[in-house]
Each structure stands twice: as C-alpha cells, then as structure tokens.
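Batch manifest, entry 17 of 40.
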Amino acid sequence: MAPRLALLMVHCAKGGHQQSRRGRELLSRLAANQGVNCAVDAWSPRGRAGPPIHPALAAPHVACLSHRDDRVVAGLANCPIGLDLEHARPRHARRLNELLEWLPEPDVRQAILVSNDPPAAFYRAWTLHEALYKLACAEGQPPATVLDTRLSSLAPHGSVHAWQWQAHGWTLAVCARDPELNIRYAEKSPLASGLYKVESIF
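Output type: structure tokens
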C-alpha cells in the first residue's frame, strides 16, 4: 500500500480542552473520508502519551494532532508520522540567542544565525525536532526528550524525510520514513500551496 497522509487544518478557539476536542473531531472527519466511523468521544483522552488512538481505527492507520494558538492540524496516515505546528512569538525573537543554546547540533545553530531570517529558521528547526520526536513515539521508540532528536537524521544524510510549510508566522513540519509519502488535503487548505519537501534544512 502506498504511504499516504491526509491533512486538515482549521481555526479554533484558544484553550487546550477546546483544541483537543476540535482535533479529535477533525480526526473523525478524516476517518469518515476513508469509510471508517470513529465516534469522537472514543478517541484516547487529551494528555495521553503518544499519538491519539481509537478502537475503530485499525492498523496501519495512524492519527496525529498538533495545535497552537488558534489553529489545529490533524492528520491520518497509513504509516508512522510526526507532525508539529508552531506559531511565532515576538519574545522568542528577542531571546533567540538563548533559545539557540537549547539546540543540540552546533552546525544547526550556526546555520540559523547566518540565515536570512534567523527567527523563521529557528522555528523550522524546532518543528523538525518536535516532528522527529513524535515520529519516534509513533514508532514505539520515544526519545527521553524532544532535543534528544537530531536533525542530522533527516535526508539526504539520514533515513527520515521531512516536509514543511511556513507562512505568516506559522510553521508546520511533517516527518516520515518513506520519501514517497503522498500528502493530501481533505479540504481547501493554505498548506496545499506551500508544503514542500525538505531537501536541505536551511
């Protein structure tokens, strides 16, 4: 079966509980698009470690969610996926040098500093770390922390492939093992015109 991922991103009221509920509604909609009836209330609860699970969703289907501020993105795939969404904050730009010290790879820190837009480059790196962490969790091998992941594990030098979207302060990262992942958009989405395969981190 060809690897595929269906994505859906919507605006949502702020608040963890509301966003968690909305994300599970989106997952149920994505499942229905594939002929699977997933009652919203049967998804695993907010706060559970690892990706959301549902008793009606059989392998190889894997669900993934991410939310930040007033947006929620949901994905349903037939292979392990890592997905992360972030929204730029002005205070992060002011603290960029401090934040860069968190990143484990010196060459990544240096590439961010010399990039045309260091704050945007930082968010590209951060979402990739998060997506790599979530991919490892989906594969049943969670690292101890997000920053135990390494961007050097990404293609072309590593075995993980990545896709990103960045616009208007938002950054999305998707990570998967298969370079031929077919990413589809369940409805009209800003992602459709801007999600690109990562060939080089910067």
